[in-house]
Amino acid sequence: MQVLEVPAGTGWRWMLEGFRLMRRRPLALLGMTVLFLFTIVLPTVIPVVGGFAPLVLTPALAVGFMRAVRIAEAGAMPAPWTLFSALGEGGQKGLRALLLLGAINCVLTVAVLAVSMFADGGTLFRIATGAIGNDDPALSQGSVIYAALVFLVLYTPVQMAMWYAPVFVAWHGLHPVKALFYSLFAVWRNRGAFVVYLVAWFAVAVGLSVLVQVTKAVVPPGVLPMLLSPLSLVMLCALYCSFWPTYRDVVADLSPPPPVSPPTTPAT
């Protein structure tokens, strides 16, 4: 495995490729996005530990989604169970490694949120854990903005370390700690491309916000939610699809396992 350095302008292409890849198999990938969201939201109904489950499960599901995009790019149709394929790769050892990586992700995220409590007394932490209502007066305090800035600064290196770590664990057999280190190095080496990538998606988000405001002024109030839901799903799916080219273009000697084939019925 070799980490390459790509030009900064590649980040713009990564964003565009997210939409291009989604168009290869739109129904399958949009459906997988819904399944991904459902899978990480469902455990949150479990008291106490449910709120942390998405942080633990996301790395394994992210590998499955990237595999699905890779299959779509090759012109094949990804099956719904491809999303969970990483949970079966490498046997119990591979599963434990991905769950350990998810646990590390959970601990680091909670630690960063805990540090941000010094800036706002814990308001941001309660927002993240769903323990605060929309009418809570603490939301109007300016300290929440400072806490969000603290979180952004501290969480950025965590996200850099987590970016490639799941596929390094699942496809290249690296130990989770080693995968985190190599992911941090890979993102830092291509920081120019990732900055452009983030700016590109920020521009898309701003454009979408402007479109929503214009649409709100010309359509009846009851129609707007019907338009926003599918539009948000498309944008989220394109974002998830764009993760694959960020990996494909940066990691050389790419040799992930072949796509998962549909199960066959044994002959009788």
* General shape: globular
Oligomer: single chain
Helix content: 55-70%
Q: What is the number of beta strands? A: 2
Task: Give the percentage of residues in beta strands.
Answer: under 5%
**Overall mean pLDDT:** 85
The radius of gyration over CA amounts to 20 Å
Please give the count of helices.
Answer: 10
Q: SSE order in H/E notation?
A: EHHHHHHHHHHE
Structural features, described:
This protein is mainly alpha-helical. The chain has one domain. 69% of the residues lie in helices and 1% in strands. It has helices spanning 10-24, 26-41, 53-73, 91-120, 123-128, 143-163, 165-172, 176-189, 191-218, 224-248; strands at 2-3, 251-252. Helix 1 (10-24) packs across helix 9 and helix 3 packs across helix 10.
Task: Note the topology.
Layout: E1 2-3, H1 10-24, H2 26-41, H3 53-73, H4 91-120, H5 123-128, H6 143-163, H7 165-172, H8 176-189, H9 191-218, H10 224-248, E2 251-252
Antiparallel strand pairs: 1-2
Which descriptors would you attach to this protein?
2 strands; two-stranded antiparallel sheet; globular; 268 residues; mainly alpha; disordered C terminus
Summarize, please:
The protein is built from 10 helices and 2 strands, in the order βααααααααααβ. With 268 residues, the chain is mostly helical.
